[in-house]
Write a structure and sequence with these properties.
The protein has about 325 residues and is α/β, with parallel strands linked by helices. It is built from twelve helices and 13 strands.
């Protein structure tokens, strides 16, 4: 019997069927095309046409999970877990934070799906691990050793305040605080939306009204082909901020088990990411530079990493 698993972000809704041996029939839908989670699930099941209707579902979703009513952080979907399960004829619907699912996945991730960025090639055994993922928003989670295995610890670290170091960064944040936000979290500058924030902030600071409005992928493309210096600066700043946010998580956890970078953005950047300012900001300067050199950092290459965690959790 194959059950339903799903990884729901603010933009993409990823679905698959799973059993004890793995997951199958992966398909990606656009959240904006559907009224709610139940509507998207019905569409996927129509596409997948499983031999038997799933009885159970495990869903990773972007936002804090608490109680029956769930509201997504960066998307309008809001729903009752119980009512959704009943509407779909499910015996159980287990909802978890999307980065909790990634935390479940990391201990099961094969080496072929991990690209080392810095630090030791082999993580310390049973040491804490941190997961950071820039996508539409910025997710974070961790896992700690519980005696018989790793225990996921979901969190909302992406909404912690982002520190600044340079005058340019100070001016950027001052501009964003004046024109858009009351608080600059890591997510505001370390995500798809964050890249747009940086670009628009720098445009405003430099008086570049001649530059067009751009979507995140357009800023990245113009940065990578060097056709727009402001786009390049925006992407460079985002990578520095991401390194800084990842460093904070690593220091907080003592993450000698590794920091694992997930999310679609980094893999799309390719070689640029590994040559960017991420590693320099992650290692940092001062008394804890050697400490940070001992923390391994990996990029997760798997196309559907949350599915690994959802499958492991559903059939534990």
């Amino acid at each position: 019997m194959r059950e339903l698993i799903a990884d729901i972000g603010a933009t993409n809704a990823r679905f698959a069927l799973a059993d004890r041996n793995g997951f199958y029939q992966e398909h990606v839908l656009q959240c904006a095309d559907y009224a709610d989670l139940a509507d998207a699930i019905r569409s996927y099941l129509h596409i997948a046409k499983p031999e038997n209707s799933p009885r159970r579902a495990a869903v990773a979703i972007a936002g804090p999970v608490a109680g029956d009513i769930f509201k997504m952080t960066n998307h309008p979907w809001a729903f009752s877990v119980k009512e959704t399960a009943a509407a779909l004829g499910l015996e159980s619907l287990h909802l978890m934070n999307d980065f909790e699912a990634l935390a479940h996945a990391v201990p099961h991730m094969r080496q072929e799906y991990l690209q080392r960025v810095s630090g030791p090639a082999v993580p310390a055994a049973r040491a804490p691990k941190g997961i950071v993922g820039p996508g539409t928003g910025l997710g974070m989670a961790s896992i700690v050793w519980g005696g018989e295995g790793y225990i996921p610890v979901p969190g909302e670290g992406g909404h912690a305040t982002m520190p600044i170091k340079t005058r340019r960064e100070f001016d950027l944040f001052e501009y964003l605080l004046k024109h858009k936000y009351h608080h600059i979290s890591a997510e505001r500058v370390c995500s798809g939306k964050g890249l747009v924030n940086i670009y628009n902030g720098l445009r405003g600071l430099d008086g570049r009204d001649d530059l067009p409005d751009r979507e995140p992928h357009e800023i990245s493309a113009a940065a990578l082909d060097r056709s727009c210096p402001l786009c390049r600066e925006s992407l460079d700043l985002m990578m520095a901020f991401l390194g800084r946010a990842s460093r904070t998580l690593a220091l907080t956890l003592g993450a000698f088990g590794g920091i694992y970078i997930a999310g679609g953005i980094v893999n799309k950047l390719g070689r640029y990411f590994y040559l960017s300012g991420f590693e320099k900001e992650f290692i940092g300067e001062g008394r804890f530079t050697d400490y940070m050199r001992g923390v391994p950092v990996f990029v997760i290459l798997h196309e559907f990493p949350a599915f690994i965690g959802l499958q492991a959790d559903l059939f534990a």
